[in-house]
């Protein structure tokens, strides 16, 4: 990491729609594939992503480019006060988002933050923060990662516009930090697609090809994790002037990464090169793709006796061109090539050592090993100068009101914030109780916001829901408790039955 150029994913966030893609790529590869996707797992996973999207959105909407980095994301998460004995209505993070809400009531970041705050305080909020920090902070609090990602020196936008090469070197024996490589590929493809679409608009044509064709050679593709929407990209990237070579050890790796979509990836690759192997599913696929050959069998029958004689018969039958056993035992210097519209053929592997330029490589002579001229020195003073500023702190700049937020909208936000502060000073929020309905009631009626229903009305609605055995998800429940009593009763009349797939607790 010290002998690299820096890569900051925030440098390639051009609009708020880029933020969920950036967060999803990171979280999916940091966490890895999950065994279960429902119940508790789904709730904590979605709330963690929503919190990260809110904080990344805040940095994007309010901070200059040099302060948009994951170091500040972690610092903002640390500002959240979700303790049971919280004495103030607003913590430091609330104040930052309140200022943004006043400037832009329709802020994308604020809307996501409100979803998190609607879960209330106490154990639920604590678990949201803990699960998010457990996913995120354990990497971006490391000096090496912080130093690598606090600014960007790669200039990915140059790829597709001029001839250049980008080497993404990841450890072969450890994929702990390879989530950054997956994030890089995700953003690179998005940049290239935008370039192609912009070219089409500028030239007034239907061609979306980038200026300079791009070829991606991804060796050990399984070690960089999952590139989101890769099956869709493989299906469409050709018209953008992009090609990709995905190199896996065997077919099982592709299946493990892409589940039901692995055949889409294989099917959209015009060429498949099999270098050898003994994985059962891989050799079976190769044998089936090779097809069958026709063989003629001749049987000679000779009668031995007084009259002698005999007969000859010929039969036609089919067999695999190469059986799975023959493929497993294929010579190491052979390979099998499949190209669309051509018959498969066997070829020789090229011996790297015989290439005329091999003598210039580091494998031929250690004196040729390339050592980067730069070294990423860790400058804590420089990084500290880029830290996010709190409300009232020296250097803090209040967000500027955007054009589409009217004065009436901003005044409404200020009045709403004042009501929440007043409610918070009168009653300290209590942690949610045991049952699902108690948690939902607590999240809506005692989270420091101005509630529409009284506590008694909330209790009445909760009893009605439990009597009908209606099971609600978190967001659905909170919406009901934020309605008026009459509207909530009407909604409950329309609902019935038990839905285990909506159970988050």
Plain-language structure description:
This protein is mainly α. Helix content is 44%, strand content 9%. 29% of the residues are buried. The two termini are 41 Å apart. Mean pLDDT is 83; it is low at 427-433 and 497-505. It contains 19 helices and 7 strands. Helix 2 packs antiparallel against helix 5 (108-117), helix 3 (70-78) packs antiparallel against helix 6 (123-140) and helix 16 (436-445) crosses helix 18. The strands form 3 sheets. The chain has a 3-stranded antiparallel beta sheet, with no helix packed on it. The longest helix has 25 residues, at 179-203. It is extended.
Structural class, by secondary structure, is: mainly alpha
Write the H/E string, N to C: HHHHHHHHEHEHHEHEEHEEHHHHHH
Q: What composes the largest sheet?
A: 3 strands, antiparallel
Oligomer: single chain
User: Span from first to last CA?
Assistant: 41 Å
* Low-pLDDT residue intervals, each spanning 5 or more residues: 427-433, 497-505
Overall morphology = extended
- The gyration radius over C-alpha positions equals 31 Å
Number of strands: 7
Percent of residues in helical segments? 40-55%
Strand order of the largest sheet: 3-6-7
Query: Number of helical segments?
Result: 19
**Mean of the pLDDT scores?**
83
Fill in the keyword field for this structure:
505 residues; mainly alpha; 3-stranded antiparallel β-sheet; two-stranded parallel ribbon; disordered C terminus
What order do the helices and strands come in, and which of them pair?
Elements: H1 18-31, H2 39-62, H3 70-78, H4 92-103, H5 108-117, H6 123-140, H7 143-149, H8 179-203, E1 214-218, H9 230-236, E2 242-246, H10 251-258, H11 262-267, E3 271-274, H12 280-290, E4 292-302, E5 310-320, H13 324-328, E6 334-339, E7 345-348, H14 380-385, H15 407-426, H16 436-445, H17 455-467, H18 474-481, H19 485-494
Parallel strand pairs: 1-2
Antiparallel strand pairs: 3-6, 4-5, 6-7
Helix pairs in contact: 1-2, 1-8, 2-3, 2-5, 2-6, 3-6, 4-15, 16-17, 16-18, 17-19
